[in-house]
Amino acid sequence: MMMNRRRFSAALVAGATTSSVTTLGLAATSAPVAARNVVLVHGLFADGSSWSEVIARLQAAGLNVTSVQNPLTTLPDAVASARRVLARQDGPTVFVGHSFSGMIVTEAGVHPNVSALVYVAARAPDAGEDYTTLAKKFPTPPASAGIIFDGDEGRLSEAAFLRDFAGDLPEAKAKVLYAAQWPFHKALLVGKTTQAAWRSKPSFYAVSTEDRTINPDLERFMAKRMSAKTIEVKASHLSLISHPDEITRLILEATGQRA
Predict the structure, then answer these.
(1) Collapsing DSSP states into helix, strand and coil, what is residue 244?
(2) How far apart are CA 243 and CA 57, in angstroms?
(3) Residues contacting 53, CB < 8 A, separation 6+
(4) b vs e for 176-188, b when ≥16 Cβ sit within 10 Å of the residue's Cβ?
(5) What is the mean pLDDT of residues 114-141?
(6) Residue 100 and residue 62: Cα distance in Å, rounded?
(7) CA distances from 124 to 35, 107, 213 (A)
(8) For residues 154-182, average pLDDT
């Protein structure tokens, strides 16, 4: 029998592992309104199925969940894809992005249906900010050296994917994810956000402390700058797969659920 929403939320909290998550602070923005919809967006080197572990848990909690298939072509294309999904939601919606898709959450998160934002080891630029310039203020993460291009399409080498992207997953599972890797276009990386939704929406951030794709200190900087409710997860860049309970709890909090 499927748990009802309240029981599932309580079960997640009861099952928390104190060793893997550290809560840092509360968002300075107002508390989120109750929401029954969650829209998820994936980043580079992945597709919408990367959210599968989290989707199952959110659905068990009674939420309506949609995982956007990011086209990975240009930032305007990616934002437009997400906006179409946001427009279909029937009320307050928590908008969640992993990795590169934090750019999409930052830009499209101003949509009136969006009640709160969740960043999972994600980019969180300010309006008009050059993310590449911001990232250069911190040591370059190892995964950057593993990006290879075939013409205008980029992807991670298998060695970099297994070591620097999915480092805390069982090798067999990481290899399956590598096989499904979706290439991105060079044009995607030059896009800049024109607005910053985190300046007006309640925001939440999950820092991956073992991240080798985005520098964890850069993640902490962005989370602090947006006054996000922040947790630290002892995980690789793919915390949404290796620690889905922790990521689900953060999203549930953004929906206004309380244990």
Answers:
(1) helix
(2) 12
(3) 240, 241, 244
(4) ebbeebbbbbeeb
(5) 97
(6) 28
(7) 22, 10, 15
(8) 96
Nearest to 205 by CA among 77, 78, 116: 116
Contact 104, 193 (CB under 8 A): no
Q: How far apart are the first and last CA of the chain?
A: 21
Closest by Cα among 57, 59, 58, 48 to 81: 48
Q: Pick the closest to residue 175 from 192, 194, 156 (CA basis).
A: 156
Is the predicted pLDDT of residue 227 greater than 50, yes or no?
yes
Largest pairwise CA distance in the chain:
51
pLDDT at site 51: 97
Cα angle at 118 between 115 and 124, to 5 degrees? 110
What are the strands, taking DSSP E only, across the chain?
21-25, 37-41, 64-68, 93-98, 114-120, 147-150, 153-156, 184-185, 203-208, 229-233
Question: Is 210 within 8 Å of 168 (Cβ atoms)?
Answer: yes
Cα–Cα distance for residue pair 90/71, rounded to 1 Å = 24
Beta-carbon count within 10 A of 5 CB = 16
Q: Is 41 helix (H, G, I), strand (E, B) or coil?
A: strand
Fold of 36-254: Rossmann fold (3.40.50)
Q: What is the pTM of this model?
A: 0.90
Contacts of 106 (CB under 8 A, 6+ apart): 117, 123, 124, 125, 193, 195, 196, 197, 198
Using only the alpha carbons of the chain, give its radius of gyration.
17
- For residue 77, give both structure tokens: 């294309």
